[in-house]
Design brief:
The complex is a heterodimer of chains A (485) and B (485). Chain A has 485 residues and is an all-alpha fold. Chain A contains 21 helices and 2 strands. A two-stranded antiparallel ribbon of chain A has the order 1-2. In chain A, a hairpin with a 2-residue loop joins β1 and β2. Chain A starts with a helix and ends with a helix. Chain B has a two-stranded antiparallel sheet. The longest helix of chain B has 29 residues. Classes of the chains: A mainly alpha (485), B mainly alpha (485).
């Protein structure tokens, strides 16, 4: 108990703070009179009260948090907030089951973007805003998680990120204290979101849609206010804007922060991930464009490029919008896009997957082993941006990859044993652990996750949390060692 | 030239010796008066002369081979011999393409067991014997490869096997020189094969079938003399005999040898892999039979147990016999069997895949990283059989597993791009890289690999080779460092 109480105490504060988040959809609901305001009233009261009760109950356990408490706190926040986030959905749609509502909320807060709801166009605007506002808040959480919390906990070689940001900039450690780091990054996040809203509005969206989609893009979530997702607008300008901001969101926010502070683009040049990120993405888009042309799926180059570029960027950055049902493309194309989603996002971004930095390190480690076969006694260092990476971190990254693959295998088996076909099961799991959103087969971009049964839905919710918390955070809390003194 | 020529000299000798193995089918053809006799006459002559010429030409550059030459030699042996082995097929059936013939012989010599041939029941006995003999010879090669050569080259953490045989048995390094080791293990292999032949004969096969199936079982190849594979016999007794010998072949031949010499079973107790292999296989047999029975495929549990046991053991050990079309079972069952094929076989066996010891080590390393999350400063060695494994070896194994996964992903995407469906592509790659044999769907146990295009056939042939030579042996030849200096 002495282990949990202090964590619960912090959690209670987070809950009370979180209740403020319902004010935006409440205001929207009151202004537009869309009839959903009761839902937010109840949510605010329930969240605030629960927070208060928890606060009172846990007050005597208050103490300084240790590193170990960090794991539990992170897991609890990401598992408990969706419960309260689901309240407006449950109140407004009484026939929605808790399983589905929780899935929707987890998908929201982990910025995954998978949905069990259809008929989105007919939902009250405030509900749609709430769904994507969850993304946006989740995105804020993710940024702090990946830039400050996970490196401190040392999850999956994240220390690398802490110690090894590009060399020439000496103040790359950002501001020393976590709170200030968070504030700096959130400011950048909010400013870019502001630009995105404005751009989308200028390009022709109404302001509710602009708000919804900007929230979705910046957090790389992927929920939309339309069943047809971005295809509803059928506008090249809007697609270009969304692609641009999706790319920005998939780059490390500490790099953006540097660039802001130095008023110069030089920060981007020193970010080792960006070159690989853009290179792989550009090559893939061109390759897929030609592949689709070759297969006769599109007849002229600009059209093929338009669809290949948007959907590839959207899936690869783990956003998850779609402008066409790419499930009907030849299998290679969507599977390649899903493959990209597993590693292409930068380590300090709101995207999911194993992150580009880890992928680079893995690649270099394999190369090192090959060299070692030829020169068994040579000392070969793995380097990222000219600096050798300590063995300990390489270890952690390799173990991270192993857990990542093992999780995909185990969860796919769980889904397929419960009766889903292999293709759907596998792509759903990949889309979940990468926090991408749409899978393929039965859960493709043109359908929703409503086809899953309760067990499968829970497996998917778990997979989203697992991916978002970078596996170790969640798994550590589930080990007996964690609870031993 | 100075790098390649001495290797070619040795290769010439190997081909020369290999040509004499054609005498066995030649004799069979002679006595059975079958239609393939001239094919073997000519093949024997061509191979003999080619080997001799190569040996003669290479003699000028003759020198002691270095460790580094081993990579090239191993690759050339495993690609060169199958090329000569295709001769009897192509001479007998002129309409068989080189692509298909090479796939068949490579599949044999890597003991994969994937076939492009049908109408096996009416094939001349000498050709069927040749197919099975190739598997058996491949098995001999693999034992030496796994026990002596790969550890010497240090591929994928194989040193582990060399240095870390179970504690109390002190002479576990066997005789120091490769040749002696090979002879002892081959004697063991031959003795077990002879036992298997007798057992199969007693169980009801005729001598010819018994010899062929014993060759396929001990090498974990999986060819059969019948299109219906072992399903042709429809005999629980034969299936039981094969299960026993497949399990024996999936254990380390070094352990068999030690047990034989000590006339005691303690050697098995000290083998860190045996428990894993048996536990995993038995638990899976019981569980999957229950699953298949529950799904209503078989009316009785015992029938389910019989079919599941045989096909599961066959696939898990990377043998590849089939007694029924398990493609029709609920997809979870065959997928699980394919998954087992990745990890079940022991490191000194004729099976393929990652090998049990690497799987165990990866699992322990995953657990260690979880513990390190909680105790960042603690020293937590990874242990196998009571001994701490050096970090360098853990590294090499992690890189190996990473490469293994990357290869599966890449090859699957290549097959998808060439137009195969997902399940077929993925399962074919898994079946080939593990040297198991049948995949699912289009390449399932009810069909064979003949339906693939030429390009796809070559991709899978390459995949078999990669799996058999444990990836790094091949990949190292693509590095510049290998050819320099």
């Amino acid at each position: 108990m002495s282990q949990i109480l202090p964590v619960l105490h912090i959690l209670s504060k987070v809950l009370m703070l979180f209740s403020v988040a319902f004010l935006l959809p409440l205001a929207v609901s009151l202004v537009l009179e869309d009839g959903a305001h009761k839902a937010y009233d109840e949510a605010i009261v329930a969240t605030l009260l629960s927070g208060l009760v928890l606060w009172l109950f846990s007050r005597r356990g208050k103490r300084e948090l240790h590193t170990r408490d960090g794991f539990l706190l992170v897991v609890l926040i990401w598992a408990v907030l969706p419960v309260f986030s689901a309240i407006p959905l449950l109140v407004h749609m009484p026939d929605l089951s808790f399983t589905d509502a929780y899935f929707e909320a987890v998908s929201g807060l982990t910025a995954t973007g998978a949905t069990v709801l259809s008929g989105l166009d007919g939902l009250p605007p405030s509900i749609n805003i709430w769904r994507t506002q969850m993304h946006w808040i989740g995105g804020m959480g993710v940024i702090v998680l990946v830039v400050a919390v996970l490196p401190m906990l040392g999850v999956g070689g994240r220390q690398l990120f802490k110690a090894e940001t590009p060399t020439p900039m000496k103040d790359s450690k950002l501001t020393p204290r976590m709170a200030e780091t968070a504030k700096g990054l959130w400011l950048v996040y909010a400013i870019i979101t502001g630009f995105c809203i404005l751009a989308l509005w200028l390009a022709g969206m109404n302001w509710v849609d602009a708000l919804v989609h900007a929230f979705s893009v910046m957090s790389l979530g992927g929920m939309s206010s339309h069943d047809a997702s971005m295809a509803y607008f059928d506008s090249v300008t809007l697609e270009i804007i969304v692609m641009l901001f999706a790319l920005i969101a998939a780059i490390s926010f500490s790099t953006h922060f540097m660039a802001f502070r130095m008023r110069s683009l030089i920060a981007y040049r020193f970010d080792t991930e960006i070159r690989w990120f853009l290179g792989v993405l550009a090559t893939s888009i061109l390759g897929l464009t030609f592949y689709l042309l070759y297969k006769g799926f599109y007849l002229d180059f600009p059209e093929a490029l338009r669809f290949a570029a948007f959907n590839t960027i959207s899936v690869a950055t783990t956003l998850g919008f779609s402008t066409t049902d790419y499930n009907v493309w030849p299998y290679f194309a969507p599977l390649w896009m899903l493959f990209l989603s597993s590693f292409i996002a930068s380590s300090g971004s709101t995207g999911g997957g194993i992150k580009m930095l880890r992928a680079m390190l893995l690649y270099k480690q394999v190369y090192r082993e090959l060299i070692k076969l030829v020169h068994p006694n040579a000392t070969v260092h793995t380097k990222i941006g000219k600096q050798p990476v300590p063995n300990k971190i390489t270890y952690a990254v390799l173990a991270f990859l192993f857990i990542y693959v093992a999780s995909i295998v185990v969860l796919s088996f769980a889904l397929s044993a419960s009766g889903l076909d292999v293709f759907t099961a596998f792509t759903a799991v990949v889309a979940m652990v990468n926090n991408t959103g749409p899978g393929l087969g039965q859960v493709g971009p043109a359908s929703t996750y409503a086809v899953l049964n309760d067990f499968q839905t829970w497996v998917c919710s778990f997979a989203m949390l697992l991916g978002r918390l970078e596996f170790f955070t969640l798994l550590v809390v589930l080990t007996p060692v964690f609870w031993r003194k | 030239m100075h790098r390649v020529a001495p290797v070619l000299h040795v290769l010439g000798l190997v081909i020369l010796i290999f040509s004499f193995t054609m005498l066995a089918p030649l004799a069979t053809a002679f006595f059975a008066h079958d239609a393939a006799q001239h094919a073997f006459d000519e093949s024997f002559a061509v191979t003999l002369v080619a080997g001799f010429v190569l040996w003669l030409v290479g003699r000028r550059w003759r020198r002691e081979l270095k460790v580094r030459d081993g990579f090239l030699l191993v690759l050339l042996v495993w690609t060169g011999l199958p090329a000569f082995a295709t001769l009897p097929f192509m001479l007998y059936a002129p309409d068989m393409s080189f692509t298909d013939a090479y796939f068949e012989t490579l599949s044999a010599m890597t003991t994969t067991g994937a076939t492009v041939m049908s109408g096996l029941d009416i094939l001349p006995p000498s050709l069927n014997l040749w197919r099975h003999l190739l598997q058996w010879l491949g098995g001999m090669g693999i034992i030496v490869l796994a026990v002596a050569i790969l550890p010497l080259l240090g591929v994928g953490g194989r040193q582990l096997l060399k240095a870390e045989l179970p504690g109390p048995i002190k002479d576990s390094k066997l005789t120091p020189r490769i040749a002696d080791t090979a002879k002892l293990l081959w004697a063991m292999y031959a003795a077990l094969t002879a036992l298997c032949v007798v057992a199969l004969k007693l169980a009801g096969m005729d001598w010819f079938d018994a010899i062929c199936h014993a060759f396929a079982a001990l090498s974990l190849g999986g060819f059969s003399t019948h299109d219906a594979s072992v399903g042709y016999f429809n005999s629980p007794l034969i299936e039981a005999v094969l299960i026993v010998f497949m399990m024996l072949a999936a254990l380390n031949f070094v352990t068999h040898f030690l047990a034989f010499r000590q006339r005691s079973l303690t050697a098995y107790r000290h083998d860190p892999e045996v428990r894993g292999v048996l536990g995993l296989v038995i638990a899976s047999c019981l569980g999957i039979s229950l699953y298949v029975w529950q799904a209503g495929v078989y009316p009785e549990y015992l029938t389910a147990l019989r079919h599941v046991s045989f096909n599961l053991v066959s696939l898990a050990t990377d043998c590849g016999f089939a007694s029924t079309d398990f493609n029709n079972w609920p997809i979870f069952a065959p997928m699980w069997m394919l998954f087992l094929s990745c990890v079940t076989a022991s490191s000194g066996s004729t099976g393929g895949g990652l090998k049990m010891i690497r799987a165990v080590l990866m699992f322990r390393q995953g657990v260690r990283e979880l513990e390190r999350q909680l105790h960042p400063a603690a020293r937590l060695p990874v242990k196998i059989g009571g001994h701490a494994v050096p970090n360098q070896i853990v590294f090499a194994i992690q890189a190996f597993v990473m490469m293994y996964i990357a290869t599966i992903v890449t090859m699957t995407l290549v097959l998808l791009a060439s137009g195969l469906d997902f399940t077929s592509a993925f399962s074919a790659v898994i079946a080939c890289i593990n040297n198991a044999g049948p995949g699912l769907n289009e390449v399932g146990p009810g069909t064979n690999y003949a339906g693939l295009g030429d390009f796809q056939t070559w991709v899978l042939a390459f995949t078999m080779l990669l799996g058999r030579l444990e990836l790094f042996t091949v990949f190292v030849l693509f590095t510049r460092a290998f050819w320099r200096g």
